[in-house]
Amino acid sequence: MNNSQKAQHLMDVTYPGQAGGDTFRLLELLAIPAFVLDARGHAIAWNRACERLTGVPRYEVLGSANAWSCFHRDPRPTLADLLIQERMDEVGALYDAHAQLCDEPGHLSAEGWCDMPYAGRRRYLAVDVSPICDEHGHLAAVVETLRDMTDEKQAQISLEQLATRDGLTGLANRRCFDDTLHAEWQRALRQQQPLSLLMVDVDNFKQYNDAYGHVGGDECLRRVAGAVAKEMRANDLVARYGGEEFAVILPNQSLKGAAIVAERMRCRVEQLHLPNLGAAKQFVTISVGAATALPAPEYEPSQLLATADAALYRAKHMGRNRISLTRESDGAA
């Protein structure tokens, strides 16, 4: 008996009779990718559209309990598996979004990224599952249908990036900075951790624009932004605050640590050796103001921002191309 015959035999045994056979033939013709798992989690149907989506022919899946391997590299249950195994409390941790399709229990919808190891491409899939019960109300099988929403998801991500990214430098924009500062302040307050902030300004930028024009000025800002961003940790955020000014959020970072980061930034920008004919030092440099706070309920993030801004102002008036730290009189913790 070849693989196709084995698959048909399994289908006939599981759902004997003309009605069952017709149901599976209709499923086979569906343009929507779909598969069926029995009450033990074994695949009993895998239509052609599912073959095209996953790159896995049905004879390799039917009868097995590893349908998940067609969608993920590492062991991870499908939505149908979760329903069969009564593990629906795990859906939120495994999928980006999920919802109940109707008032009937077990009818669920979820969305998330899948590795698609056999197809060789990562896809964002919307998944619907529905239980099939016998005449006694016992679960007999689960149908899972899939929709490839990769293009729509990527378009959504692009729109979100437009809303949170600065078009010139590619850094976070002012809106993203404000939202992140508020969120990190609340997190630091809960965890009683320090929060540091750097305000960065390109020295003598007006003279640079006068000498090289706006096109040259834009390229200068892009180069400086790239240099500053290279000093960031995974959880840090660097944003274009406005004009030639940048802001850096350093979660769980002491003032001493913030000063080290600031000095590395200053050196990295200076080492770009971007000529600035309008500046005394002949190269583009930055000034940095650093501040740190241990958030408390009676304080606001705006106070940390004001303190870092005052430190930046001081660095500019002390001769530029330097960093300035919080003073006790500035009121930061």
**CATH class of the largest domain, please?**
Alpha Beta
Radius of gyration over alpha carbons? 29 Å
- In the CATH hierarchy, the architecture of the largest domain is 2-Layer Sandwich
Number of strands: 11
Beta-strand percent range = 15-25%
EC number: 2.7.7.65
Domain PAS: 25-91
Pfam families: GGDEF, PAS_4
Organism: Pseudoduganella umbonata
Describe the structure.
By secondary structure, this protein is of the alpha+beta class. It has two domains: 3-154, Beta-Lactamase; 167-330, 2-Layer Sandwich (Alpha-Beta Plaits), CATH 3.30.70. Helices cover 40% and strands 22% of the residues. A hairpin with a 5-residue loop joins strand 5 (123-133) and strand 6. Helix 8 (205-229) packs across helix 9 (255-270). It is elongated. Mean pLDDT is 88; it is low at 1-20 and 328-333.
List keywords for this structure.
Alpha-Beta Plaits; PAS-like_dom_sf; disordered C terminus; 40% helix; 11 strands; 2 domains; six-stranded antiparallel beta sheet; alpha+beta
How would you summarize what this structure contains?
This is diguanylate cyclase. With 333 residues, this protein is α+β, with helices and mostly antiparallel strands. The protein has helices at 3-14, 18-29, 48-54, 79-84, 91-94, 150-164, 174-191, 205-229, 255-270, 301-317, and strands at 34-38, 43-46, 97-100, 108-114, 123-133, 139-148, 195-202, 237-242, 245-251, 286-293, 323-324.
